[in-house]
Amino acid sequence: MKFVILPGPVALIGRPEFKQGYLYGLALPACVIRLQLTAGVESILEKKSRDILHAQLGEPEIGADDEGCAFTRTANKIAYWCLEVQNRCGLFVQRDFRVGSVTPPADGAASVSLTLPYRFAEPAMAALSLVINLINRSAGNKPAVSEIRTLVDASTKLIARYRERGQNVPDILKAAGARGIPFQRVDGQLYQFGIGGAQRMLESTFTDKTALIGANLCRDKMMAANILSQSGYPGGTPVQIDSADAAFSEAVRLGYPVVVKPIDADGGRGVWADIRSEADVRKAFDVARAESSRVMIDRHVAGTGHRFTIMFGKVVKVTAKMPWGVTGDGTSTIAALVGSQHARANEDNAAPPVKGKAPTIDDEALSLLRQYALTLDSVPAAGEFIALRRRNNANAGGSTVLLELDKVHDDNLALALRLATLFMLDVAGIDLIIPDISRSWLEQDCLICDVNSQPQVGTTAAADFLAEVIPGSGRIGVTLVLVPAGMTAMVGAVRAELSRRWKIDGFSASAGVWIHGAQVGRSGLNGYKAAKALFAHRDVFNAAVVMSAEEIDAFGLPADRFQRLVIVGAATPASQSRATLRVCLAGESSRESLEQGISQAALVPARSDASALVEKIWLHFDPTV
Fold first, then answer.
1. CA dist list (Å): 240 to 213, 273, 293, 371, 415
2. 498 vs 119, which has greater pLDDT?
3. Is-contact 175 168, C-beta < 8 A?
4. CA triplet 464, 467, 472: central angle to 5 degrees?
5. Contacts of residue 82, Cβ cutoff 8 Å, sequence gap at least 6
6. Of 4, 41, 174, 460, whose Cβ has the fewest other Cβ atoms within 10 Å?
7. Cis peptide before 257 (omega within 30 of 0)
8. 237-299: which CATH topology?
9. Maximum Cα–Cα distance for the chain, whole Å?
10. Architecture per CATH, 304-458
């Protein structure tokens, strides 16, 4: 997609460089941007753009009294807003960034470089364009509200397309970011957390050890019901139906009320519950059939839906699930109560991101009102709840109430744990419809309506889940070896010496990939791709990756942090070494150690500070010594 930058006090110099790898210790791949800033831009931000930018993008966590010149402070704000708008749109990006040095102003303008973390190039560019265009457009005459809204809507809708489905993946990514666990997207919702022998593969709450059979059973509601019935649990007696006529016939046989749902759809899609008429049965079949070619019908059990979230043999929470609806105040009509909900939703959505809109009155809501002998003009009593959806899922506007575990009967907690074990799941969501959760399921008419193998667990539970799966940092020892471009003859000697000194068990270079002394990858890859190939192997715990300064400049680094840095020979001219190796280090004392020792010819260990990417710096290492 082409992004247009409006003319004004902030301009792009060239095209942003989206590196495949990392720079400056940022926890995600790096995007390098160069900006031209006009003198007085900070004053424009404060006097003309402040209301617009702060309203749309939030208050930057960078004060006007921060150290640095006006250009640096402006660049910091732009960087902050670029990352903030992506996060507000539901696309998690760590908020660390680097602002480079400012070139001396000339002709009233100065240039400055920004290095920002990114996950996808298109939303990163959309965020950058939005921030610059809001500044530039507000620098002149005050823009119309509609013009600002058009700029914001176009960018935020594009960014929102890249956010993950559901809340599990964003919560797990945030937990990983908070703990410094490296992660990268493999495809879709599948992510690799950690590298080498410390890695785990996760797809939401599916792990690389999740039982496939159990997950498949949960996806097929007919099979799940049969397993429950065979095990003596109240899983219902569903019947598969292939037409609206068959649905009506079974509804008559079962007796109203009934529930119709797709057999193999997730998230409550296509479910109609508490059906009490032929017309609604036929409508429900059409709704379910639109989601799946396989549809089932069963009796409806009255009661409140409850979700038991199980993680690794423990009930972590129980929630009561309520469908979308309105609660009467004794004076307002149902239509007015719905209107009030929409007004509040619009207030909540005044700024990005683009959140889910409040549900609206549709055929499903009207069918429920007819069932209750109500209309949109009816006035519910104060405190009376009127359900306007036949399912209680969050994606249908449903809400949840967290229950105290000591308010849930022990038999019901034990039931949920047994069901997770029955379906071979380490993480599960057990949905139980029951009139009174404080009483045992053994003495009430209840129904296990779903066993979910990939439930939405919530922010706190997601962090606990990740801690269980990856108790450590997800990292292995990695030594970065900087070599002259095209150096292939010395790779064998370097590998042998590093293995002797530090027990290296994995080694990569453009000449190939070696693990435990055996070559497992062919030559022909660049140093960056060879390193990433090495990190994919689960039997590597102490790696060394060889790259040239030219490869680092072109691709970035294969990891964000290193245990050691080794410079082989005169890897690059001294001036280029300094420029290239700054991207490998964080912390001023590390840079000083490197630059003070750059001309030394011996093997020199230099301790860096605690904030450095590299724990030890080894300068001018000669593999023949």
1. 22, 16, 11, 25, 27
2. 119
3. no
4. 165
5. 114, 116, 124, 127, 128, 131
6. 4
7. yes
8. Dna Ligase; domain 1 (3.30.1490)
9. 91
10. 2-Layer Sandwich (3.30)
Residue 500: predicted pLDDT: 83
H or E element in which residue 258 lies: strand 258-262
**Res. 459: pLDDT tops 70:** yes
pTM score above 0.90: no
Kindly state the average pLDDT of the residues 333-352.
74
Handedness of CA 165, 181, 61, 129 (dihedral sign): negative
Residue pLDDT, tens place only, 557-573: 999 988 888 877 654 44
Strands (E) located in 314-455: 315-322, 325-327, 385-387, 399-403, 427-434, 447-452
Q: Cα(625)–Cα(616) distance, rounded to whole angstroms? A: 19
Domain ranges of the chain: 10-160, 168-212, 237-299, 304-458, 477-621
- Tens digit of each residue's pLDDT (9 = 90 or more) over 268-315: 888 999 999 999 999 999 999 999 999 999 999 989 999 999 999 999
From the list 151, 104, 120, the residue with the least C-alpha distance to 4 is 151
Task: Give all strands of the β-sheet with 190-193 in edge-to-edge order.
Answer: 183-187, 190-193, 200-203, 206-207
Closest C-alpha to 559, from 582, 578, 534: 534
Contacts for 526 with CB less than 8 Å, ≥ 6 apart? 510, 551, 554, 555
Q: What is the mean pLDDT of residues 225-253?
A: 94
Of 410-414, 457-461, 535-539, the poorest mean pLDDT is in: 457-461
Residue 190 identity (one-letter amino acid): L
